[in-house]
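Think of the structure tokens as a kind of shorthand, similar to the way a musician reads notation: each symbol stands for something richer, in this case the local conformation of the backbone. In the example below we present two proteins back to back. Begin with the first one, reading the sequence and then the tokens, and try to describe in your own words what changes along the chain.
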Amino acid sequence: MLLALDTSAGSSVAVIDGDLVLSELSTEDTMRHAEVIGELIAGALGEAGVDGSRIRTVVSGMGPGPFTGLRVGIAAARAFAWGVGAELLPATSHDAVAFGEWEAGFHGPLLVVTDARRRELYWSSYDVAESGIARTDGPALCKPDEVPYPDFERVDATQVSAGALGRHAWAERQRGVVEEFGEPLYLRAPDVTVPGARKRVS
């Protein structure tokens, strides 16, 4: 049994058994990740009729995404996995969007774009074949007028499905492809800075 979480664009939580999504709850609210993530986890587990102790794997969306929102989802995934003794798998959030397009029957070059705020966009490019998806470039950050690959089919995603994220990550694991749990894909430095030395007051 698997729990997937993504807060790179809104918040989404899904409970998955093998290839079947038992429940998925999402919100496009990009300002209240910390307030809603606990409710979404509890709601998804309740809707699926699954006790948290039955979760053996937790998939965490690693972005790209804005700093604060993305941190909330990753922290929640880490805490839940630690609490129930589950393994923790990372997953690139844009992969879930491309996976969803592949499941819908799309084949060809694909560009996934999400809002990075500050008048910037995140993007990733994919080769979507009959056999599955392969990321060919990105994730990266750019201005709206600098988005590459204008000839690719473009998907501007306002949300990342935790169901698609978890199913794709599990399918990749079954093929022996497992990402290391590295740094989140913020793709820009946080606003906070280390304060300088205090000025002497004479």
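Once you have a description of the first chain, move to the second and do the same.
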Amino acid sequence: MPIKVPDLLPAKSKLKEENIFVMDESRAFTQDIRPLKILILNLMPLKQQTETHLLRLLGNSPLQLEIGLLHTSTHTSRNTSAEHLKQFYKSINDVKANRYDGLIITGAPIEKLPYEDVTYWEELSEIMEWSKSNVTSTLHICWGAMAGLYYHYGIDKYIMEEKLAGVFTHSLTDPHEKLLSGFDEEFVVPHSREADIRKTDIEQHPDLKILSESEEAGMYISASNDGKQIFVTGHPEYDAFTLRKEFDRDTEAGLNPPVPVNYYPDDDPAKTPKLRWRTHSNMLVSNWLNYYVYQETPYKL
């Protein structure tokens, strides 16, 4: 089934090249079906890149989706044009009266900042509070997962001595959990972050459960018992070259970043990395949409 996106969204042409069924608003208007309404709060600096990453995964679902894009109005983006934001994005004030089947909160490269020092923390807190009564289930990614755990449960992050970057092997803590349906017992996921969430802090909350972790990368997926809050510390949405772009950017900036682990063939940055986590990523998002959104949401929002 298709995902419904704004007519002129740049990501649409890229997704069509990959044979992902994308339906624009004009065609969707003629369809007699109630699509799931999914809102993406995009906190990443390169918003158009993240749009493509997430829409690629959402478009792999058999469900028909209507996508909305949200940004924080209290922060001025330096990497995305004001015209793009004005044309395709809304703020919380624009959608506050609406209800949504699902919400995705992305990461942001600000792990070292205390939450209260983030310029849009107050607005993000408002959005997360609003989501508790206006969204069926929320999927938090990377820094978004850290921020969600801090806001909803008071669980703080810990700054790492060195950035965690690479592709790491993960295992299942509870293979019978619906979110993990169809997963292999071991699978790989990209991580790119400078802070961590400790497993022991999650275990102190009876309302939370750990679903997947990695010996090298730590806690990966946790969730509330009711499935309304899903926290994913990695970047399953990344494409094959995202980590390379980040590594090259930080190298050019003189930051001397570590070479992403298990990413380049033979750990050689001169070689072309391969995408090895597509199946897991598609399954994660499809399971979230099916079991935690579609099967839980009312027909009339």
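Compare your description with these statements about the second chain. The two ends are 21 Å apart (CA to CA).
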